[in-house]
Amino acid sequence: MRRTLLLASLLACSFGATAVDTPLSTISERSGFTITGRYAEVIELCDAFAKAYPASVRCFDFGTTPEGRPMKAMAVSTSGALDAKAARAKGLPVVLAQGGIHSGEIDGKDAGFWLIRDLLDGRIGKGVLDKTVLLFVPVFNVDGHENFRAWNRPNQRGPEQMGFRVTGQRYNLNRDYVKADTPEMQALLGLVNAWDPLVELDLHVTDGAKFQHDVSITGEPTNSGDEALRAAGRALKDGIVAKLATQGSLPVDFYPSFVEDDNPASGFVHGVATPRFSHGYYPLRNRIGILVETHSWRDYAHRVRTTYNTVLDALELTAANASQWQALAQQADQRARALGGQPVPLDYKATEKVRTIDFLGYAYTRTPSDVSGTLMTHYDETTPQLWKLPLRDEIVPDTVITAPKGGYLVPQQYAVAVGKQLLIHGIDFRVLTNATRGMQAQVFMADSAKFAPSSVEGHQRVSLKGEWRNAATDIAAGSLYVPIAQAKSRLVVSILEPLAPDSMAAWGDFNNAFEQKEYMEPYVAEEQARLMMARDPALKAAFEKKLRDDADFAKDPFARLNFFYRRHQAWDSGFNRYPVMRTDTVY
């Protein structure tokens, strides 16, 4: 008990008056950061802040969860800009700080309320809220937050009880950004479409090994997205890391997950997140997404303080660089409108280039376990140790396509499903009112479609191989035209290119197109094969050559008969044809 009170006192001394004597404090503060409050506290504090600071805080609902709970947000600024229209009119950058996407990782909620109170009371960050708008979502995954108990986070020290990782419908919201299955994500993207935040902070707690570093700061665009905007992304990420280092933290600028689970010697590989994740999504909108991961084995008080500092640092850096970063974002929007015909990376990879880094760990042993039956790592937190570890952090594009010069065409029968997805992200498209026959377009034919053996987030994902081919096609009235000439063109490409890792196709939304629906019975195929060879000596010669050259083909009866079926007029030309087309025509 004395240790808890001492900790609370030390924290209060660091940031101002004691929490017990301060209005609008959280249950967490008053407990000495041993517990966190339930969602009712979020509702109460949101309203209380708006009443206490009516000129500087607006509390509002931006959605409703599947279990019927309100999704709360706070707009905070001393500029008077408390709605999206006013923020745009004043030209103020919006910083979206989002807590509790994984509701067991709840540092952001308690840090955010604490920080906002100190900002508004003038204890820290003087003038920052004159130059920015803080859009604070205390808890994104609200239903998961109320799935509340001890041991929801077995790899984490404190608080005593916390929410759960997934939503009431068992979705992981930080796998849902671009596919947007959930009501929660659809509500958040509506908020993002309205406010257009320049910077997004996604506040997490990492799992993993035991080491001394207490927070990782990563994000994009630093290695991906618009090249000029990367300067702003790097400046923010590196600036936060530098500030945290002066505030008592031991930050790293990569995600500290070992290449081999449970083996520190394997080191780290840096990368670029795909847009199912927050910091992979925002760069496709030409905005900055920062992933904040405090270290789960630090106690809750330390983690909340570190998150407090991180959000404050981001606000100060954004305020100081607002005009430059906003200009870079606007220029990135303009360049995105001219993306047609240009090379666009769909994903990225680390090269084999390795460098050795100093990493602050602890002494450890790896010994055989009679429980697991394999080597297990045991850390000694009483013995700090400097690790010399390999890091691969040179990032280059992997899959690269050329964007269509005009845009994408969505056939009428898929228009509702695709149109709904585009609307969620605020992407522009037009409904075509006239039919067109025999127009030139590009059609993607899959050479192979490999379906995932198990479900992922309620989807059966599919991995496609194939290429775009020129073809004459008919377009019905009611089809969609999605122009590439728009600010969110990178997001358009990510959603509609079939080889993109988080496209609609990759998430299985078009799996029917890659399932064979019609067949030729073997006895019919046998009969037709003989007739086809009799009519076409060249075909007969090609078949006999394949028998000689391909042993696997020669011993596979199905493959032999399918050789002829694929060349027969009965073959289904729609099989393995991706339904969305590309066009170089501007409508």
Q: How do you describe this structure in short?
A:
This protein has 587 residues and is of the alpha/beta class.
Strand order of the largest sheet: 1-2-4-3-5-9-6-7
**How many DSSP-defined strands?**
21
Distance between the termini: 70 Å
Tell me the overall shape.
globular
Main sheet properties:
8 strands, mixed
Mean pLDDT: 95
Poorly predicted spans: 1-20
Helicity, in percent? 25-40%
* Rg on CA atoms, Å: 27 Å
Q: In words, what does this structure look like?
A:
There is one protein chain. Helix content is 33%, strand content 24%. By secondary structure, the chain is an alpha/beta fold. It has an eight-stranded mixed sheet. A four-stranded antiparallel sheet has the order 17-20-16-21. A three-stranded mixed sheet has the order 8-13-12, with no helix packed on it.
Features:
four-stranded antiparallel sheet; disordered N terminus; alpha/beta; eight-stranded mixed sheet; 587 residues
